[in-house]
Design a protein that fits this description.
Elements lengths: L5 H21 L3 H11 L5 H6 L9 H38 L18 H15 L3 E2 L5 E3 H4 L25 E3 L5 H10 L4 E10 L11 E11 L4 H16 L5 E8 L2 E10 L16 E10 L1 H7 L7 E7 L1 H9 L13 H4 L2
The structure holds adenosine-5'-[phenylalaninyl-phosphate].
Length: about 350
């Protein structure tokens, strides 16, 4: 092509635009649309071909012509999109007329997400205790030996430490907490000498032989109430109310004497089996009872370590395992499902 002037090129561009618009209005399916696109806007298309001649223009003229070309390109792209939409809706309309689309069919339902059972059980527990005036208090999952044991009346070498199979860290004196009870000391040291009514939920870790009812990571919810006249009857009342709300009214409970270094006296609370209502079944191993939690009156030495004078204050504490409760409440036969990362678990309830 000989030397072209600016006017020549602009004229060519305008011509391409008119041709392209004409062709576009005649395209009526997606193959024609895509052929049209390569013919006019593609890398080897007419618009690009014209722009190759910009070299014959002066440096001032080039950007001016470039702008004209670009405006045309933008305009054609917009027209292309409008044309595609028109074709799509015409196609749909044609299908509808032909009867191949049944517009009266109901939509496809979305599968809604579900909360994990552990989350649901924890929230139930929070709600029940909130109604009794208990606030949530969080404490660390990695604990010092002092908080996990010593402040709970287990000095170094105390034999009761063996009740918890402990994960030790490589840092001497640091352990993964084996229970939520160290949170008692955190709460007391923050609030002493004010009265306390808290629950302390969270993950705990034990070097366990894992089986259908034992995990090495599981949840606990601790409870702690401290005041001038807190009694064992208060503990029983709170726990009975909890059991009735959590597992249905009319539950029967029994308190068995037990031992924890940080409570005195100590008990374990059983409820009549929620599966067989106390008649005896595999879940309760034919005893009619299910163990619910450990509890007791806060040991005077633990009160003292927490900053309360045992002469003027008393308290109760309890520690329950929400994962074990979920097994019973939802009739699940293996605790390992909870953290096995299998979404079918969520479909079961
Ligand atoms: C304790 O851990 C005490 N800290 C509870 C306590 C708190 C007593 C305050 C007195 C006062 P225990 O080891 O029994 O106690 O555990 C409490 C609950 O955690 C059990 O009743 C059970 O529901 C749950 N649990 C214990 N071990 C496991 C495990 N390996 N997997 C799942 N749940 C468990």
């Amino acid at each position: 092509m000989g030397n072209m002037t600016r006017e020549d090129i602009v004229q060519q561009l305008e011509q391409v635009r008119r041709d392209a618009e004409m062709a576009l209005s005649q395209a009526s399916n997606s193959e024609q649309i895509s052929a049209w696109h390569s013919e006019y806007l593609g890398r080897k298309g007419q618009l690009t071909a014209i722009l190759r001649n910009l070299g014959s223009l002066s440096p001032e003229e080039r950007p001016q012509v470039g702008k004209v070309a670009n405006d045309i390109k933008v305009a054609l792209e917009a027209e292309l999109q409008a044309r595609q939409e028109a074709i799509a809706s015409a196609d749909l309309e044609a299908m509808r007329r032909a009867g191949s689309v049944d517009v009266t069919l109901p939509g496809r339902p979305q599968a809604p997400g579900k909360l994990h059972i552990t989350t649901r059980t924890l929230r139930d527990i929070y709600t029940i205790f909130a109604e009794m005036g208990f606030q949530i208090y969080n404490s660390p999952e990695v604990e010092t030996d002092e908080y996990n044991f010593q402040l709970l009346n287990m000095p170094p070498g105390h034999p009761a430490r063996d009740m918890w199979d402990t994960f030790y860290t490589t840092t001497p004196g640091l352990v993964l907490r084996t229970h939520t009870s160290p949170g008692q000391a955190w709460a007391m040291r923050e609030y002493a000498p004010e009265p306390i009514r808290v629950i302390l939920p969270g993950k705990v870790y034990r070097y366990e032989a894992v089986d259908a009812s034992h995990e090495s990571m599981f949840y606990q919810v601790e409870g702690l109430a401290i005041g001038k006249h807190v009694t064992f009857s208060d503990l029983k009342g709170v726990l009975m109310n909890f059991a009735n709300q959590m597992f249905g009214q009319g539950r029967h409970a029994r308190f068995r004497k037990s031992y924890f270094p940080f409570t005195e006296p100590s008990v374990e609370m059983d409820i009549d089996c929620v599966i067989c209502n106390g008649k005896g079944c595999p879940v309760c191993k034919n005893t009619g009872w299910l163990e619910l939690l450990g509890a007791g009156m806060v040991h005077p030495r633990v009160l003292q370590y927490g900053g309360y004078d045992p002469a003027g204050f008393s308290g109760f504490a309890f520690g329950m395992g929400p994962d074990r409760m979920s097994l019973q409440k939802y009739g699940i036969d293996d605790i390992r499902y909870f953290f096995a990362n299998d979404a079918r678990m969520l479909e079961r309830v």
